[in-house]
Amino acid sequence: MRKWFISVLLAVVLFGSGLYVGAQNAATIPTFTPGQILTAAELNALGDVASQLQNKLILLQDDVTRLESLTAGHLTIFDANGVTIGESIGLSFQGNPIVSMSIEGQVVVLGVREDGFFNVGRVGPYFDGLDCTGIPLITRRETENNLLIIVKVNAPGQTLYIEDSTAVDEIEVQSLLFQDFADPRVSGCFNTGGFTGVSVIPLLDLDTLFTPPFTVVRKGG
Fold this sequence. Notes:
The chain is α+β, with helices and mostly antiparallel strands. It is built from two helices and 14 strands. A hairpin with a 5-residue loop joins strand 2 and strand 3 (97-103).
């Protein structure tokens, strides 16, 4: 029972420390070495830190819930020409709207910034050639047990890559096209490998449908 308690407590502390590292009022995380036997005082110190982090997590969750209740389903996103992009169904980690759209008969879920679209929780596509050339790919694992078809938006322009449900061949990955709209400094092509993917279809360039900058209007004013 004692070992279980220590394991759970350490997990809470390590998880919390990752969330609050560098925070001005972050709790001081005690350090231990593998195999060290903890004293009662050290256990109490861990308990105090875990309690502080738990309180911070509760406050953070409250803030997220409050923000989502104020925005999700109440925001409409428009392009520069007044064309409706879609309704917000939630918020990204950076606080940008996530929208659901119908593109070429497919349900598409993407994040929206003032200057364009971005992937929600995904990177890519990958390619079977070096320097992001050749066949665009996604990993097979990305396609498993998903209610929605997998889509990715990336260069050139705002090209929408969509999962090819008929693809069966596993193709060796050679590079990754990464476009971070939150921080363009880390965008670009990165050579990688050691795993395989299946092909995706470059459906269309979203720049042909929507013109930035985008704006948000809340229902009811």
